[in-house]
Design a protein that fits this description.
The complex is a heterodimer. By secondary structure, chain A is mainly alpha-helical. Chain A is built from 13 helices and 4 strands. Chain A has one domain: ABC transporter involved in vitamin B12 uptake, BtuC, CATH 1.10.3470. Chain B is built from 13 helices and 12 strands. The chains are: A mainly alpha, B alpha/beta. Chain A: Keywords: Cell inner membrane, Cell membrane, Membrane, Transmembrane, Transmembrane helix, Transport.
Chain lengths: 337, 334
C-alpha cells in the first residue's frame, strides 16, 4: 500500500486540530454547566461566555503561556527546563529592584524606570538560560540535572538580591506591563503573549534554526553528522527559554505589583503540562506551538471554569490531574493508530 | 610513659578549666528554627530577633535555620542544633504534628525549647510565645463586617487547607459572621489561595466574573491574599473603595494599602513573638536572676504579663491597623 490512501487526509487534519476540538469540548462543557445555573436562576447571564471573562482567561494564562513557548523549543530539542519558575522569580526580583520607588534614588526618570528593569530582567533571564545551555551542550550533562541545579541556584539568587525580602511599590509605568490595557479592552500581557507566540512560530516554522531544533531533538547524532552545529542550537534553545522566563517574570511582577521570593514556585510543571497537552513528545523531535497555545488555554479554562463553578479545591486538583493525563492518552493514541 | 600520662592529665584538666571559664563569659547560644525564610513575616522576625537588646549586647547569640518549608528538614535541624550544643531552641514550626519531635528531642537533651508564631500539638515545650489565630481571624472578619454593617455578601480567601493558620483563622472568621443577624451576611465563596498574592489575584478575578456586582467584602486570611484581591478588583476596572477588605499579618505592602484607605490589616507582632521568645529562652537558661530586656513587656503592659518567664503560654496581642495608627507602624519599618 502506498502512503497516499484517501483516508490519510482526514487523519492528518484530526491530528492537527484534535487539541482544538478538545479545547472547544472543554469550553462547551463549562458553559453548559454555567447555562444550567443560568436556567436555575443563579446568574442572569452565562458568566463564563462574557468577553470580560474570555479576556480574563487569556490574561491569566499569559505568564504560563510565555514560559510554555520557551519550553516548547526545549522539549522539541529533546530537553527539559526545570528552572523556568526560579529564573522567573530571579528576573522579577531584578526588575523590581530597578522599578521600585523605595530605593531612595529619586533622580531616575520615568523612562529609566521602565527601560532599566525590563532590560535587566530579560538579560538576567537570558544569562541563566545561557548557563543552562552551556552546561548542557559543553559538558553533555542531562538537561534534567543541569536545569535542576539552576532551579535551586536561581531561587537562591532571588533571595540574595534582597536578603529574602519582597520588593514592592513599583513604578506605575513598569506596572503597565501587567495591568495596562490596549484600547481599554485587551490587557497588555495578552498582547505580549500573542506577539511572543507569533514571533516564536515564525522562528520555529520558517527559519533554518527552527528546522535545526527539530533535527537535534529527533536525532542529535545524525543532526551533527549532517553538519548542524548541535551545540550552538542547544545553547540558543536554552537562552531563548531563559529570556522568555525573564519576560514572564516581568509580566508576573507587574501584575501582582510586587516581586516575591516564592514567586513562580512549580510553574515549570504548568509549562511542561501545556507543552505536553499540546502534543509535544518529551522524547524530542515532535511538537508545535499552536498545540502549546491550546494546551495553555485548556489549563487556563480549567482553572477559571472550576473557580467560577465554585468547585472545592481538593476536587479541582483531582480533575486537573485527571484531565492532563487523559489529554496525553488521547494524544498518544491518535499519534500511533 | 608515666610522664606522658601525667602531662595528658594536666592538659586535660587545663582544658576542662578553660572550657568551664569560657562558659561563664560565652554568650547564650540560641538556635532559631524557622519553617522557611521566603515569607516577609519570617524575615521580619529574624530582623527583630537580631535587634533584641541581649543579642545586640552579645549576651545571646542567635543561629537561624531555614527549614525550607519541609517538616522533616526542620526536625533534622532541631537535632543538629542539639548536636552543636546550643543552650536553647526557639522553633517556628512548619507542621502542627510532624514537628513535635523537636520538642521531644530538646527535652531529652535537657535544653529549653520555645515555640513561636505557629503551634505544635503538645504541651511539653518550655513555653509558647504565639498570637491566637482564632482571635486574629475574628478581628479581621469583624473589620469587614463592621464596614458592611453586617449586611452583604463576602468571600473568604483561605490559607493552605488543613494548616493550623487556615483552620484557626477560619474559626475566627465564622465566629464573627455568626455574631451578625442570621442570614444577613452570605458567604458566596471560600477557597484557598495558599497564602499567595498571585493565586489570590486569579481566584478573585474568577469570582468577580462569576458574581458580577455581588461581592461586597473580602476576608483574606493573610495580607498577601488581600493584596491579590485588591489587584484583581483594580484589574477588573472596579473601585477598591466599594469593597470592604481585610487581611492578617501587617506586612509592609498591606500597611501601605491601609494608608491608601484600601484595606484593614490585623498586625501580628513579629517583634513581640521573637523578642518575647528570646527573653523566655534566656530566663530558662540563666535562671531567676534574668530580667526581660525587650520593650514589648512595657508596650503590652496590662495585656501581657512576664510572670517571671514561667508561663506555659504567652499570647502576643493583635493590633488592628487602620488609617489612625498606620503611620507609626510604617515608620517602624524603614
Amino acid at each position: 500500500m502506498s502512503g497516499t490512501t484517501p483516508i490519510a487526509k482526514p487523519t492528518f487534519s484530526l491530528q492537527k486540530y484534535g487539541i482544538v476540538l478538545a479545547f472547544l469540548g472543554l469550553c462547551a462543557l463549562v458553559s453548559l454547566v454555567c447555562q444550567i445555573k443560568v436556567m436555575q436562576g443563579v446568574w442572569p447571564v452565562n458568566v463564563f461566555l462574557t468577553l470580560n471573562n474570555l479576556m480574563l482567561i487569556l490574561h491569566q494564562i499569559s505568564v504560563n503561556g510565555v514560559l510554555a513557548v520557551g519550553m516548547t523549543f526545549v522539549v522539541i530539542s529533546a530537553g527539559i527546563d526545570l528552572s523556568v519558575g526560579s529564573v522567573l522569580a530571579f528576573s522579577g526580583m531584578v526588575a523590581a529592584s530597578f522599578a521600585t520607588r523605595y530605593t531612595g534614588v529619586t533622580v531616575w526618570s520615568d523612562t529609566y524606570m521602565v527601560l532599566a528593569p525590563v532590560t535587566a530582567a530579560l538579560l538576567g533571564g537570558a544569562l541563566c538560560g545561557a548557563v543552562n545551555g552551556w552546561i548542557i551542550s559543553r559538558f553533555r550533562i542531562q538537561a534534567f540535572i543541569a536545569t535542576l541545579g539552576m532551579l535551586l541556584a536561581a531561587r537562591g539568587m532571588t533571595m540574595a538580591v534582597t536578603g529574602g525580602n519582597p520588593i514592592s511599590a513599583l513604578s506605575p509605568d513598569f506596572r503597565w506591563f501587567g495591568t495596562g490595557r490596549l484600547f481599554g479592552v485587551v490587557p497588555v500581557p495578552v498582547i505580549i503573549l500573542i506577539l511572543v507566540f507569533a514571533v516564536a512560530w515564525v522562528i520555529l516554522n520558517k527559519t533554518v534554526f527552527g528546522r535545526y531544533v527539530y533535527a537535534v531533538g529527533g536525532n542529535e547524532k545524525s543532526a551533527r553528522t549532517s553538519g548542524i552545529n548541535t551545540r550552538a542550537v542547544l545553547m540558543w534553545v536554552y537562552v531563548l527559554a531563559g529570556f522568555l522566563s525573564g519576560l514572564a517574570g516581568i509580566i508576573l511582577t507587574a501584575k501582582t505589583g510586587s516581586a516575591q521570593t516564592a514567586a513562580g514556585t512549580s510553574y515549570e510543571l504548568d509549562a511542561i503540562a501545556a507543552v505536553v497537552i499540546g502534543g509535544a513528545s518529551l522524547a524530542g523531535g515532535v511538537g508545535r506551538l499552536t498545540g502549546t497555545f491550546f494546551g495553555a488555554l485548556i489549563i487556563g479554562v480549567m482553572n477559571n471554569g472550576l473557580d467560577i463553578l465554585g468547585v472545592e479545591s481538593f476536587y479541582q486538583l483531582i480533575i486537573k490531574g485527571a484531565l492532563i493525563v487523559i489529554a496525553v492518552i488521547i494524544d498518544s493514541r491518535r499519534m500511533s493508530p | 610513659m608515666k610522664r606522658f600520662l601525667l602531662s595528658t592529665i594536666a592538659l586535660a584538666s587545663t582544658l576542662t578549666i578553660s572550657t568551664a571559664m569560657a562558659a561563664e563569659t560565652d554568650p547564650v547560644r540560641i538556635a532559631v528554627l524557622m519553617y522557611g525564610n521566603r515569607a516577609e513575616f519570617v524575615q521580619l522576625m529574624e530582623q527583630y530577633g537580631r535587634e533584641h537588646p541581649a543579642v545586640v549586647s552579645g549576651q545571646a547569640k542567635l543561629t537561624y535555620y531555614d527549614g525550607r518549608y519541609d517538616a522533616s528538614v526542620q526536625n533534622d535541624q532541631g537535632q543538629m542544633a542539639i548536636n552543636t550544643l546550643h543552650d536553647a531552641i526557639i522553633v517556628n514550626p512548619m507542621d502542627y504534628e510532624a514537628n513535635i519531635d523537636i520538642v521531644t528531642n530538646a527535652n531529652d537533651a535537657g535544653i529549653p525549647v520555645i515555640v513561636t508564631n505557629a503551634r505544635l500539638n503538645t504541651d511539653q515545650m518550655t513555653s509558647e510565645v504565639v498570637s491566637d489565630d482564632v482571635e486574629g481571624g475574628y478581628l479581621e472578619a469583624k473589620a469587614v463586617l463592621g464596614q458592611l454593617e453586617c449586611a452583604g455578601n463576602v468571600v473568604i480567601i483561605e490559607g493552605p487547607k488543613g494548616g493550623s493558620g487556615e483552620i484557626q483563622r477560619g474559626q475566627g472568621n465564622e465566629k464573627a459572621i455568626a455574631e451578625c443577624p442570621e442570614g444577613a451576611v452570605a458567604v458566596l465563596e471560600r477557597q484557598t489561595a495558599n497564602w499567595s498574592r498571585a493565586e489570590a489575584l486569579d481566584l478573585m478575578q474568577n469570582w468577580l466574573s462569576s458574581h458580577p456586582d455581588q461581592i461586597d467584602g473580602v476576608i483574606a486570611q493573610n495580607d498577601e491574599m488581600a493584596l491579590g484581591a485588591i489587584e484583581a478588583i483594580r484589574a477588573a476596572g472596579l473601585e477598591v473603595n466599594d469593597f470592604a477588605i481585610a487581611g492578617i499579618d501587617g506586612v509592609t505592602d498591606a500597611l501601605r494599602a491601609v494608608k491608601a484607605g484600601e484595606m484593614t490589616s490585623v498586625l501580628q507582632d513579629a517583634r513581640g513573638q521573637i523578642q518575647g521568645s528570646i527573653d523566655v529562652a534566656l530566663r530558662a537558661v540563666l535562671g531567676e536572676s534574668y530580667e526581660p530586656q525587650s520593650i514589648i513587656w512595657d508596650q503590652y503592659a496590662g495585656d501581657l504579663d512576664w510572670a517571671d518567664g514561667q508561663s506555659a503560654r504567652y499570647d502576643i496581642p493583635w493590633t488592628v491597623v487602620t488609617e489612625d495608627n498606620v503611620d507609626d507602624l510604617l515608620a517602624d519599618r524603614q
